[in-house]
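lol forgot to send this yesterday, sorry. struct tokens for the thing we talked abt
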């Protein structure tokens, strides 16, 4: 309630006062006093049911008759007696303001003064007239925003309304009531003051779409302001410093029917550069010294989808067991919240080094993610995918394929420097090993040769021919005088059975001697290397052979 809890309490409907008509004289009109005094008043006041005003036609007639009858020299002065004979005859109520304009939030002063003697009764200020009136001020009641300009005055009933609101607009009446027994009637009322409240519009508010919109789409934005009076208002739209052409605003009545609300719409096609742009809604009104502005950052309504690409740091094909880094470049996206995942042949793989989005000078974002792959033969032809989910939209992906190079077949033109170093090291090792082996073989051959030479120069077995006499030459040779040598030569590998059979056998070698000079020169030597000569039982001599042959038997014991 604008003026207080008791402001709406009206004891009874207040009816308008009718203008004085024929046969009825207004109480504000001058009333001539008669100089005749009567014991009882012959005048009576009557109340008209509608409008309720005091009428005294009989008193006027009586006074006129007395003046005509006695003249001014009458000895008996006429005097009206009774409570209502002279009350209100000179009463005046003045409400001089016809129209008053005030700005909402300011203080409104309404003037009402009275003169003369009036009936007993209160003075009120009413907003509106008739059954829908509202009590703004009452002498007997206090109101939160309404006070007397001159308190305790019996003639000045001007009021002051603080913090005027748009709903305070209307017509205000200053009313004097006459308190009678059991009733409260209107005695006088002012002509009324029309109050118009010039209300400033509320700061404009610009709203956009609930969800973000992609590039190239036309998006509506709305600017609203309310609570202003009068109705006329001007609205302009700007994108940055460029003005946007829009339709006139829609203006409707406000909540109190004494103010207005406004709504204006502008359609904008979003672009990539709008990340740092803003919309401006400018409102001009008669109550404003400077226009009001409402702003909206287009980045709140804009979505820029990212571009995704995957690049390997080593060009394909890649040598086996090389380490390859695949880098996912996510560029030119807004807002900055993204989710990045790596997949190998459709299966998600875990990646640790995912960087945070970085803002570019144009207001967009970019990001890099790297996955490290060992180029084994099993991964030949594997497809690596970088999948990016941005602003709850469908995923955007980039892919790259890993190809493994076949091993080189001759020629080292395609080898890298590292491979050449490895091969050189291998060659050095092989050369050293071969050199050692060659030296070892040479040493073995030398030892064998040395042993052979030692065998030739070792002590020899000297075979002596038995002394023969001259007469023995004519005799038959004695078989028991033969000398035998049992020589064991290299032979084929024998089985155990064969070795047993031959364990008791001896091998014979025929040593041919040529006849030479007599003496020691006729001795025949046999160089036996590492041969053990032992004496064995005499065996039957072989068949006689031609003269000049001698035999030596050498037995090699079996170990």
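and heres what i got for the seq, position by position
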């Amino acid at each position: 309630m604008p003026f207080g809890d008791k402001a709406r309490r009206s004891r009874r409907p207040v009816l308008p006062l009718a203008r004085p008509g024929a046969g009825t004289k207004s109480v504000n009109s001058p009333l001539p006093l008669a100089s005749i005094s009567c014991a009882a008043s012959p005048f009576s006041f009557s109340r008209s049911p509608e409008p309720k005003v005091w009428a005294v036609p009989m008193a006027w007639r009586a006074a006129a008759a007395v003046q005509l009858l006695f003249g001014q020299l009458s000895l008996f002065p006429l005097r009206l007696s009774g409570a209502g004979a002279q009350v209100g005859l000179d009463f005046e109520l003045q409400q001089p303001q016809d129209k008053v304009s005030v700005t909402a939030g300011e203080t409104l002063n309404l003037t009402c003064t009275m003169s003369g003697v009036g009936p007993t009764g209160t003075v009120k200020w009413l907003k509106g007239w008739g059954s829908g009136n509202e009590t703004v001020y009452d002498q007997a009641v206090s109101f939160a925003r309404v006070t007397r300009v001159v308190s305790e005055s019996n003639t000045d009933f001007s009021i002051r309304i603080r913090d005027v609101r748009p709903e305070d607009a209307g017509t205000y009446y200053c009313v004097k009531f006459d308190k009678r027994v059991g009733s409260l009637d209107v005695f006088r009322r002012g002509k009324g003051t029309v109050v118009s409240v010039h209300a400033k519009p509320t700061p404009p508010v610009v709203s956009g779409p609930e969800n973000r919109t992609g590039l190239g789409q036309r998006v509506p934005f709305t600017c609203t302001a309310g609570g202003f009076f009068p109705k006329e208002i001007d609205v302009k739209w700007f994108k940055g410093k460029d003005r946007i052409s829009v339709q006139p605003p829609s203006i409707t009545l406000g909540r109190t029917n004494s103010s207005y609300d406004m709504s204006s719409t502008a359609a904008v096609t979003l672009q990539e550069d709008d990340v740092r742009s803003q919309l401006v809604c400018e409102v001009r009104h008669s109550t404003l010294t400077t226009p009001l502005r409402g702003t909206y950052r287009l980045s709140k309504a804009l979505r820029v989808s990212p571009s995704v690409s995957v690049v390997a740091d080593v060009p394909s094909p890649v040598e086996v067991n090389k380490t390859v880094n695949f880098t996912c470049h996510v560029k030119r996206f807004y807002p900055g919240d993204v989710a990045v995942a790596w997949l190998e042949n459709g299966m998600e793989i875990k990646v640790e080094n995912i960087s945070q989005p970085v803002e570019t000078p144009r207001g967009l974002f970019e990001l890099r993610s790297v996955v490290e792959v060992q180029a084994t033969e099993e991964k030949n032809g594997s497809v690596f995918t970088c999948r990016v989910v941005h602003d709850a939209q469908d995923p955007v992906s980039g892919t790259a394929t890993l190809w493994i190079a076949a091993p080189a077949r001759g020629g080292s033109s395609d080898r890298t420097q590292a491979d050449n170093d490895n091969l050189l090291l291998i060659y050095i090792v092989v050369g050293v090993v071969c050199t050692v082996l060659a030296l070892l073989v040479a040493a073995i051959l030398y030892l064998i040769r040395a042993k052979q030479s030692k065998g030739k120069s070792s002590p020899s077995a000297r075979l002596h021919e038995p002394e023969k006499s001259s007469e023995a030459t004519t005799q038959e040779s004695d078989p028991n005088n033969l000398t035998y040598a049992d020589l064991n030569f290299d032979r084929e590998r024998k089985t155990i059975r064969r070795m047993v059979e031959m364990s008791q056998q001896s091998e014979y070698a025929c040593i041919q001697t040529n006849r030479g000079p007599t003496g020691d020169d006729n001795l025949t030597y046999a160089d036996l290397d590492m041969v053990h000569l032992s004496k064995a039982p005499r065996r039957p001599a072989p068949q006689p052979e031609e003269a000049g042959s001698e035999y030596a038997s050498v037995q090699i014991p079996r170990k």
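The domain at 205-300 is CATH 2.60.40.10 (Immunoglobulin-like). anyway ping me if u want another try
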